[in-house]
Description:
heterodimer; A: alpha/beta; seven-stranded mixed sheet; three-stranded antiparallel sheet; 26% helix; B: alpha/beta; four-stranded antiparallel sheet
Amino acid sequence: MNAPVYNFAYLDEQTKRMIRRAILKAIAIPGYQVPFASREMPMPYGWGTGGVQVTAAIVGPDDILKVIDQGSDDTTNAVSIRKFFARTAGVRTTTSTGDATVIQTRHRIPETPLHAGQILVYQVPIPEPLRFLAPRETETRRMHALSEYGLMHVKLYEDIARHGHIATTYAYPVKVDSRYVMDPSPIPKFDNPKMNDSPALQLFGAGREKRIYAIPPHTSVVSLDFEDHPFERYRHEATCAICGAVDSFLDEVVTDDSGGRMFVCSDTDYCATQGPHEVKRV
Amino acid sequence: MTAADDQPLLVAEGLSKWYGRQLGCRAVSLDLYQGEVLAIVGESGSGKSTLLQLLSSQLEPSAGRVLYRMRDGVTRDLAQLGEAERRFLFRTDWGYVHQEPIRGLRMTVSAGANVGERLMAVGQRHYGNIRDTATDWLDRVEIDRSRIDDAPTTYSGGMRQRLQIARNLVTEPRLVFMDEPTGGLDVSVQARLLDLLRGLVADLGLAAIVVTHDLAVARLLSHRIMVMKDGETIESGLTDQVLDDPREPYTQLLVSSILPP
């Protein structure tokens, strides 16, 4: 066996074809979890093995790649994956949302609206929205097949009964194209409305669970709710301490051990483009 | 009374079930009409539970078939229904009360959600209405409405069983299957549960098939009775007739083995 020492974007071509077939099927059936033969990647499960495989299968030499981890371009996971593709594929990388053609993300959707032609690749830990509601995978698949989603509302009912409002704040279940209920990966529910009718293609890869699913551009994505308890976005009642943004999703940062804290944009690229401001302590 | 009401709700024709070489039940036929309660009695291993699972299409029969008159008045062979239709039937027009409430309830979610699950499954999306219906049903099964947000794990055995009944009846089914509904409960709790069941069955005009080994339960609840032994029906008829004047030796034995009050 003379295996080639190098192949573009790490994976061999046969594997990429297999993943692309799964992606095409996922796009054809919005929200449906397509099984695929997930490979071992040079990183642990839970670090984005699914997202990396999807990105490797779709990235081309002319693409410009951006990688974010909870909105940030400069955390370990984001930096490592960006370097991984810079080295294995030689693609250009960027931190600018507007310039990127492929954006791999962990747990956020960028604040800057995406445009047509862009692809957003999500890293997904648990693709099955019914996972902790029905114990058997055979059963959850049957429930998807028959659109039996009453159980999803049982979870939301429990939230309201216990907390007085829907207390699910991330991985908030959505219905895609009026058919499949989907786990949008652990993005904050603040980001849920951005998935609806997005001009960009959204791909979801779960490496450990071996599933790929997708939302094609301009597909309806509706967050589940009750008529008398409608879906609501959530953000901290504050402005960003760095850029002063009032419309972005904020992270709470504890600054000392005596109650000091500040709120900053979770999307570092967005924050940087809002212009510098003096850092204010809250 | 319309013409459709003259038709039986459920018809079983020659139901047999073999587990390999082991017989579950053989050539059982029965008719059940709207509002009628049928008790299936017999000792352990006589095929009662097999029969109940066959009737509720949870098991596939080795021979025979089960017909059911749907809400639209058309009688259909259950084996011919699609899976989606069968599951829909199961959570709207039917109820299934397990002997062990743990099997019929979601133990980790609140009582209100347990009762409301079927409503949400058929598309109700108004929290207030679901909760009102759940509260109403807790009242009907005599569970204190202040316990609506408690998980069934905090309930006593009798309360769990009543909650399971409420959960099944909330979509106003026409047919309820009960597998030893009073099993494992003490005598006074049993008595209250039976009283409740009898009231609900009469109020709602339910048809019910009750599997029990307890002849007292059969006498209290059912209009007709079927005695099973070794997988076959050996005697059937009106409950008081069979229990007061048993014809078969085995039935006589069964009746005489009840301790006199």
